[in-house]
């Protein structure tokens, strides 16, 4: 994928500056600042209750910030007359009236922005709901509602797309479809901002990450940079003469953990280990660089900001 | 506002259109008629009201025919108990049902957005909340006005036709047109009040309870005439104004409502309700 796509500088930018939201004594979002640029998918990550949805609602003018600003393309979105041609958003797939058919729902949304009816059929086709367009939404599965919400976001063919946990409820085929769609939209030069509480969901489609916890910014960087934060990187080494090799590696400055089957070496890359093995005439059975998964990096980073962590039972229920 | 649209626009044919109020009207129109409950509530409600009034006219016509067949018993008719044919078209309970029906339709149109969460989808598509709620007011107001006209016209026409031999009046008779008009407008007035309550309460059961309290219980509570302020509050209720306009108030009392005052009450409630709905929707987080 072309990183930072050629259209990058032309597309609209999402800008959040010192954004805060308090509900009574609880602070949902605290002095949050970040920028989302066009041309790639930007993941918005954080554990449950981190303030992702609140941030997105303020961005879309649904909630008023206690302090700070959130703008899309330099404007406060709440002050825009009609939204669909500027921003397509899916906040919650359940934000529909179950009594209407998919077609009636989309027709009303399209009509409000003066978008022709034909476009409703197009987006229903695009998300694969054409066959159930005449059915009432109340009978839809969560995955179908997600598709309907995505259809609604696409109605105005907007340069900015904002999705809150869009992969929830999608089947594996749906997940693949949506990832491809997100990547395509970004490659077309649009600004694509997608929230999730699962790193693994973002791993395959996001290039940039905004990570928050307890309403505060933890990281705003590329996926590659984020991955490099993984602290448990090392190399797994198996050899018959493991002890001799371990001594040699330690002598060269590596840290070596001796396991039952293999050594875990940190502080030295696989190439250097291979060279040393040759030098010390140790035959290697395995030499595997271990990369800490993004999942681990995410868990480590947000460990301090998880609101609803499970704790081991200690006789007393924690709740 | 449309200058930042990317080249994508040409690809899908979604061309920029200026923000027009009629687009919002179209959207609210689709929303209104795409729910089955709309047809049920309006249909059953209208039939019930017309049915109650027509049935009263029929039974009165039967009774009066029997009385006329009997020889007079020597006592002259007491003018205080004289039969008022027009009254049968404007029976209090029937029109109170219409008030509740119309009020529910208005309330559902607003709280339905909040309870379902649809309101977030709506306001993301149209951040101009005032426009959305005004379009809703226009659509719900127009439909309930139409329903009010049909119900009032049918009630008046059917009852007076049935009672044509017993003093049935024509629309041209004194006060008849005013009574029909006030009854027709009672529907959109109640619907507006329902929308305001729905916008403030945002909850299904709470909105309906609020509607019944406002439209029916408050006027009943402020019926006393011991204190003038109590009577005046009662007089300022939509139901009392409607009774004054249809000439069906239980009696002139110490502090009667004039026709002009009654129309002012109608107008003030309609305006107040619309403003309340707009402000409640505009100000709060969704």
From TrEMBL, chain B:
Transmembrane region(s): 39-57, 94-112, 133-156, 176-197, 204-222, 262-281
Keywords: Membrane, Transmembrane, Transmembrane helix
Claim: Protease is one of the keywords in the record: no
Protein name: ABC transporter permease
């Amino acid at each position: 994928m072309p990183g930072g796509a050629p259209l990058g500088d032309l597309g609209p930018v999402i800008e959040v500056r010192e954004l805060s939201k308090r509900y009574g004594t609880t602070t949902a979002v605290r002095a949050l600042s970040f920028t989302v640029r066009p041309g790639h998918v930007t993941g918005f990550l954080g554990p449950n209750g981190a303030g992702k949805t609140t941030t997105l609602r303020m961005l879309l003018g649904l909630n008023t910030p206690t302090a700070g600003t959130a703008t899309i393309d330099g404007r406060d979105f709440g002050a825009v007359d009609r939204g669909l041609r500027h921003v397509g958003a899916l906040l919650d797939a359940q934000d529909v009236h179950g009594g209407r058919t998919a077609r009636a729902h989309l027709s009303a949304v399209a009509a409000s922005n003066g978008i022709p009816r034909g476009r409703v059929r197009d987006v229903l086709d695009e998300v694969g709901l054409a066959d159930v367009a005449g059915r009432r939404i109340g009978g839809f599965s969560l995955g179908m509602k997600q598709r309907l919400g995505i259809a609604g976001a696409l109605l105005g063919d907007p340069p900015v797309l904002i999705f809150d946990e869009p992969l929830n409820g999608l089947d594996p085929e749906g997940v693949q479809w949506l990832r491809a769609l997100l990547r395509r939209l970004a490659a077309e030069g649009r600004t694509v901002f997608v929230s999730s509480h699962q790193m693994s969901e973002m791993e395959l489609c996001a290039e940039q990450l905004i990570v928050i916890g307890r309403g505060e910014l933890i990281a705003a960087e590329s996926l590659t940079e984020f991955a490099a934060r993984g602290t448990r990187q090392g190399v797994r080494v198996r050899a018959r003469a493991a002890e001799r090799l371990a001594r040699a590696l330690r002598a060269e400055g590596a840290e070596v953990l001796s396991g039952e089957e293999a050594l875990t070496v940190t502080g030295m890359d696989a190439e250097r280990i291979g060279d040393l093995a040759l030098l010390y005439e140790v035959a290697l059975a395995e030499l595997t660089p271990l990369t800490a998964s993004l999942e681990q990096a995410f868990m480590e980073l947000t460990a301090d900001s998880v609101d609803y962590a499970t704790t081991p039972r200690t006789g007393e229920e924690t709740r | 506002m449309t200058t930042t649209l990317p080249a994508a626009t040409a690809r899908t044919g979604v061309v920029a259109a200026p923000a027009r109020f009629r687009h919002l009207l179209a959207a609210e129109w689709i929303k209104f008629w795409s729910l089955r409950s709309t047809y049920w509530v309006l249909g059953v409600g209208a039939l019930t009201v017309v049915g109650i009034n027509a049935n009263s006219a029929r039974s009165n016509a039967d009774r009066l025919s029997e009385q006329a067949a009997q020889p007079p018993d020597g006592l002259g008719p007491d003018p205080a108990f004289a039969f008022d044919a027009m009254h049968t078209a404007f029976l209090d309970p029937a029109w109170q049902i219409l008030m509740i029906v119309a009020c529910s339709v208005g309330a559902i149109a607003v709280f339905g957005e909040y309870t379902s969460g649809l309101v977030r989808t709506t306001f993301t598509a149209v951040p101009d909340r005032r426009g959305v709620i005004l379009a809703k007011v226009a659509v719900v107001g127009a439909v309930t006005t139409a329903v009010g006209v049909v119900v009032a016209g049918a009630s008046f026409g059917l009852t007076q036709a049935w009672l044509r031999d017993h003093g049935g009046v024509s629309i041209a008779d004194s006060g008849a047109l005013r009574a029909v008009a006030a009854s027709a407008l009672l529907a959109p007035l109640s619907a507006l009040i329902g929308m305001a309550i729905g916008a403030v309460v945002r909850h299904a059961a709470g909105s309906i309870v609020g509607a019944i309290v406002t439209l029916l219980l408050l006027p009943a509570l402020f019926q006393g005439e011991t204190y003038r302020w109590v009577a005046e509050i009662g007089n300022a209720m939509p139901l009392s104004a409607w009774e004054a306009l249809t000439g069906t108030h239980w009696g002139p009392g110490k502090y009667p409502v004039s026709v002009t005052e009654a129309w002012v009450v109608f107008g003030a409630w309609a305006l107040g309700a619309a403003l309340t709905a707009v402000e409640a929707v505009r100000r709060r987080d969704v």
